[in-house]
Every structure is written in C-alpha cells, then in structure tokens.
C-alpha cells in the first residue's frame, strides 16, 4: 500500500512526539532504577517517600504506568515511521495512562508530595496522548500512514 506524502507539520508533530515521549520514558526509567538524585529533584526532596509510596502502589499503577509510557513512545516512533499501527499504540497507551492516573489519584498519596500538581500533570499527559492519538487517526484516515 502506498501512503500519500505527508505535509510538513506531520514531521514536526512526529519529532516533537518522540521527544515528549522520551521524557516520559526517562521519568519511568529513573523511577524504576531508583535514581535518588532525580527523584529528590522531581519531588522537592521527598524521593524516599515517593519510592515507598510507589513500591506499595496498586497493581493498576504498576501495570498502567509502563503501558502508558512505552505505548506512547511506541506510538510516536511508529508515527515517525508512518505506520498505521501508531493509532493502536496510542490507544493502548491512553488506556494505560488513564488507569494508572486514576489509581494513583484515588489511592493513599503521601501528604509530602503535591497531589494537586500530580493531578494537573495527569490531565496534561492524558490530553497529550489523546491529541497524539487523534492526530495519528487523522493521518491514517488521510492515507499518510501505511
């Protein structure tokens, strides 16, 4: 199947998407490898408290977060490669992120960690994934993705 030539903005969106999603992958990696310098910086000096909470977080958080992060990065790379599978990857990512964020925000969160800031980031991240999903869907529908 031959895909039609993408507009210039396709490449901008695809590249920005890869960079954005690499930031999420970096955050995930730094948390999973227990990088205390990074975690203290991200939590205003409460990295140990965050890790204790995270280690005890529900399985919805433990499974949803990597699905959200790695699904979104896969979607961005697939979009860059002009693959129609980017749509599916973003859909899976959005589901994982929403499940993880809902479980995080509904759970017992340490008072030392700013819950409001986390809620705002959950909305922003979910909205960006949804926007990427919609963009990929439109690109697929218009014949840009093969």
3D structure, described in words:
- The protein has 146 residues and is mostly helical.
- The protein has one domain.
- The chain is built from 6 helices and no strands.
- 27% of the residues are buried.
- The mean pLDDT is 94.
Kindly list the characteristics that best describe this protein.
mainly alpha, single chain, 146 residues
Mean pLDDT: 94
In helices, the fraction of residues equals over 70%
Show unreliable segments. none
Structural class: mainly alpha
Note the total helix count.
Answer: 6
Secondary-structure element pattern, one letter each: HHHHHH
Shape: elongated
**Domains (count):** 1
Report the portion of residues in β strands. under 5%
Query: How many beta-strand segments?
Result: 0
Terminal-residue CA separation: 6 Å
Write the layout of secondary structure elements.
Blueprint: H1 8-32, H2 36-42, H3 47-56, H4 59-80, H5 85-106, H6 115-141
Please summarize what this structure is.
By secondary structure, the chain is an all-alpha fold. It has helices spanning 8-32, 36-42, 47-56, 59-80, 85-106, 115-141.
């Amino acid at each position: 199947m031959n895909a039609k030539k993408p507009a210039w903005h396709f490449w901008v969106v695809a590249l920005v998407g890869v960079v954005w999603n690499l930031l999420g992958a970096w955050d995930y990696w730094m948390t999973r490898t227990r990088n205390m310098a990074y975690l203290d910086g991200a939590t205003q000096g409460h990295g140990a408290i965050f890790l204790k909470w995270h280690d005890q977080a529900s399985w919805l958080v433990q499974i949803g977060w990597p699905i959200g992060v790695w699904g979104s990065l896969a979607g961005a790379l697939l979009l860059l490669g002009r693959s129609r599978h980017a749509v599916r990857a973003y859909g899976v990512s959005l589901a994982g992120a929403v499940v993880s964020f809902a479980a995080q925000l509904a759970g017992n969160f340490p008072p030392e960690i700013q819950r409001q800031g986390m809620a705002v980031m959950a909305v922003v991240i979910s909205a960006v994934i949804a926007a990427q999903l919609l963009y990929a869907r439109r690109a697929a529908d218009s014949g840009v993705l093969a």
